[in-house]
């Protein structure tokens, strides 16, 4: 048995060595092109990738006149459309709609009440015709009236089972491989990475650790009021049906100050909702980096900007031009889109 | 020159070796008593110290059935009366009073307007007779109407120059040496340490890094509203005269959820304002630790609890008894109070 195991281990090792040799041989041209330790293999060798690497080297290399102490290497990332996809609807809205359907049997009154009546008939457009008030009502019934623990469990169940309507993939798989590499690259260079998103703070925290390697305390997002109560002698936090903070547009620099307490030296977004966050990062003096993900790949992902209601990118795209911010041309700058490939 | 320097270095080395030998010899009994690497040398060897060490070993030692993954080792600390002193008045109130005096020449109307008129005559009691409304007014004029950057500079100037009225020490020196050791001990064991205080978040952030080794993003506190604006094209955050969040009592678990997103496994406080934070930490299930600093040393620090308006400790002291929380008896548990000795 002992001898057999040893042989098995040895032969497995031999096979692995052989495989490794083959892989090394095959990847030699790539290695020669990008360096043996390219931290951003899913990025094409364009000006965008160069801009990222140049910035990181300027602020981290020993002896650089622009060296930033590790403690101040704060990088903030929008989530929807920047770290994961946001089409055909924001994934958190998809979660809310699924919850409305799940809760409907307990709410017979919804059959005659908008926006629920339209929603339950499968008419999303009709449901959202009520504008922000309709969305607020949908968010309220699905994001409050339970404890933070209960909400976490509901989101966990959803994120591990619900499938994207077009790709059929888990929503947590619809993340951008180049951005995952960028997060790891920055952390490998002493950066602390934060999410600063209009999405719900308690929603994102459920999966951000596993998916992005970002712990709950480094998530900034929109939130509802919380109420501390004792239930049967046990402390709970109830999620209340009242907005606490809207972490969007001018709210993003405010959320950053509240949670992080200093200006990021790098910020990453994709829409007008990120404009003020990028301005705030750029405004801090010294070498700063601001980047917009521009959705230009209708085939592998989606193509949208100035005319889109989701991920509306108009003023921020103009600002990128005048301010000299880096703009990712998804189609040309990204070799890979999703870990599983593309849409 | 070269030879001379070498001799100097050598003789200095010889002297250092001799000193080291003497110091080692002198400290042998102490080493034998507490172990060569006692991480809490300012704590007497009482049940309190044992409770701390036992807890930390239970949740961190490999193979312990109560092992907590490093990512979940969250410890939250109140500030006033827990990490630094709070007598004869909260230090942030001392800051505000100093600011009122500094701003008075620009506000002639304050001469006839309470609470400022009394304050400027040196009558603190009269000024605070207006209760919470008076304090709110003092806090408002001293903590808003400027940018976050401007406020940071004002606090930095104050904290590096203002002296405590009784000890004559800088306020930043009035920190508890045993608690500094405890912070370092927890961090050395993979804990992430947070401040969760009723004090102002932007106030504490100015010195918490240097004094406690806690970065701005790990400070939770009370705050005013912020407004993002462009001033001459440059982005700023204005501190507005409106309360955003009161991080006290039931606000502490809420602040913890907002900023940290999970229940601490250890919480440290000293007053009824910390009761709910300790309940929240204890309520998470598994091995948890809750500690109250009881101010029992009138000679070396101050002695106060149930009847004090500052650091009022009444319900939480009862809860400690019924819940079995650890209570620091400052007089008997702490060998040293402040880094410079005692009051």
Could you give the topology of this structure?
The structure is a homodimer of 343-residue chains.
Chain A: H1 2-26, H2 28-34, H3 47-60, E1 74-77, H4 91-103, H5 116-120, H6 124-128, H7 131-143, H8 148-159, H9 177-188, E2 192-200, H10 201-212, E3 219-231, E4 234-245, H11 251-259, E5 266-269, H12 275-282, E6 289-296, E7 303-304, H13 315-323, E8 326-329, H14 330-333
Parallel strand pairs in A: 1-2, 1-5, 2-3, 5-6, 6-8
Antiparallel strand pairs in A: 3-4, 6-7
Helix pairs in contact in A: 4-7, 8-10
How would you describe what is shown here?
The structure is a homodimer. By secondary structure, chain A is an alpha/beta fold. Helices cover about 45% and strands about 15% of the residues of chain A. The first copy, chain A, contains 14 helices and eight strands. In chain A, strands 1, 2, 3, 4, 5, 6, 7 and 8 form an eight-stranded mixed sheet that branches. In chain A, helix 8 (about 150-160) packs across helix 10. The N and C termini of chain A lie far apart (about 50 Å). The model of chain A is unreliable at about 1-35 (pLDDT under 50).
List keywords for this structure.
globular, homodimer, 8-stranded mixed β-sheet, 343 residues
Largest sheet of chain A: 8 strands, mixed
Largest interface: A-B, 37 and 37 residues
Q: Helix- and strand-based class of chain A?
A: alpha/beta
What is the helix fraction of residues of chain A, given as a range?
40-55%
Quick overview:
2 copies of one chain form a homodimer. Chain A is α/β, with parallel strands linked by helices and 343 residues long. Chain A contains 14 helices and 8 strands.
């Amino acid at each position: 048995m002992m001898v057999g195991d040893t042989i098995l281990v040895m032969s497995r090792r031999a096979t692995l060595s052989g495989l490794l040799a083959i892989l090394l041989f095959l990847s030699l041209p790539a290695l020669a092109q990008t360096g043996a330790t390219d931290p951003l293999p899913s990025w094409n060798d364009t000006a965008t990738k160069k801009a990222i690497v140049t910035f990181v080297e300027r602020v981290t290399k020993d002896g650089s006149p622009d060296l930033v102490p590790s403690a101040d290497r704060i990088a903030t990332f929008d989530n929807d459309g920047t770290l994961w996809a946001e089409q055909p609807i924001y994934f958190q809205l998809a979660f809310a709609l699924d919850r409305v359907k799940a809760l409907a049997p307990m709410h017979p009154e919804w059959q005659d009440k908008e926006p629920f009546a339209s929603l339950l008939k499968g008419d999303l457009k009709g449901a959202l015709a009520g504008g922000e008030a309709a969305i607020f009502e949908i968010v309220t019934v699905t994001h409050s009236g339970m404890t933070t623990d209960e909400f976490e469990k509901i989101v966990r169940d959803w994120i591990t089972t619900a499938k994207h309507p077009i790709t059929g993939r888990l929503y947590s798989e619809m993340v951008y491989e180049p951005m995952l590499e960028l997060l790891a690259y920055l952390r490998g260079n002493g950066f602390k990475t934060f999410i600063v998103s209009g999405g719900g703070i308690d929603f994102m925290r459920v999966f951000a650790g596993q998916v992005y390697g970002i712990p709950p305390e480094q998530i900034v997002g929109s939130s509802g009021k919380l109420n501390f109560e004792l239930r049967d002698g046990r402390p709970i936090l109830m999620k209340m049906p009242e907005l606490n903070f809207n972490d969007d547009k001018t709210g993003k620099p405010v959320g950053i100050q509240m949670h992080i307490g200093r200006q990021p030296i790098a910020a990453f977004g994709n829409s007008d909702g990120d404009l003020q966050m990028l301005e705030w990062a750029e405004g801090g003096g010294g070498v700063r980096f601001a980047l917009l993900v521009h959705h230009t790949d209708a085939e592998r992902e989606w193509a949208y900007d100035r005319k889109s209601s989701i991920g509306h990118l108009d003023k921020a795209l103009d600002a990128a031009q005048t301010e000299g911010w880096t703009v990712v041309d998804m189609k040309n700058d990204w070799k890979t889109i999703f870990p599983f490939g593309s849409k």
